[in-house]
Amino acid sequence: MSMAFLSSFAWQQNAQAVKIQQAPDWVITIETEQQKDYLQYNRSHMKDIVKATVTYMKGDAKDTDKPTAYEDLWYSQSKCIGMNRRKSLQPGDKNGPSSGQEINIRVRHKKSPASNFENWASAEAVLRVMLDTKINGNVLNQVLVPADSFDSVVQGFGLQKFYAVPEAGPDQPSSTVGPAIHVSSEPEGRDEDLVYSP
Fold first, then answer.
1. CA angle 92, 60, 183 (to 5 degrees)
2. How far apart are CA 91 and CA 96, in angstroms?
3. What is the pTM of this model?
4. pLDDT tens digits along 10-55
5. Where are the domains of the chain?
6. Dist. CA 11–CA 129, nearest whole Å
7. Rg (CA), the chain
8. % the chain with pLDDT above 90
9. What is the reported pLDDT for 45?
10. What is the DSSP letter of 104?
11. Cα 38–44–45 angle (5° rounding)?
């Protein structure tokens, strides 16, 4: 997915983000699953198929609460090849995120360890969801990824032209222009600030 049009949004975000302590209003979960032997018919050019299931629920929801299905995304070697949207994010929807509310995006894998293609698909799916929430008027706190996939997912963001923010020098203030993402690991221990740089 081309990210050039993303920079048209005035998404100002502190690149040296502090760790988010409070629970967000909503959590959007992207769960990926490698589809073994899927679309593997004669002369098929589709390989390494990954399905990304996107759901959301309130930030203070219990583990037993049922999330709302948002969309399914399909990838071949981390390139999006299909989407089935089940519900739209509507501003003011009582059953979904409203404008101004804070959101975390959480990446999960059906099975671990995930392949690089699965992790790169996760990063691309995050950017699609990030754009949807921005259009909806939401504020993205952070992206949470499994610790054992952290480096590979960050590499996937790099493939979409999101790069680590260089540390500012003593006479140079730190700032970003355009879309920025704060990525944290689960369990905690790794953090990275990324900014879009075409």
1. 90
2. 8
3. 0.83
4. 344 443 344 445 789 999 999 999 988 766 677 767 788 999 999 9
5. 4-196
6. 15
7. 17
8. 58
9. 75
10. E
11. 100
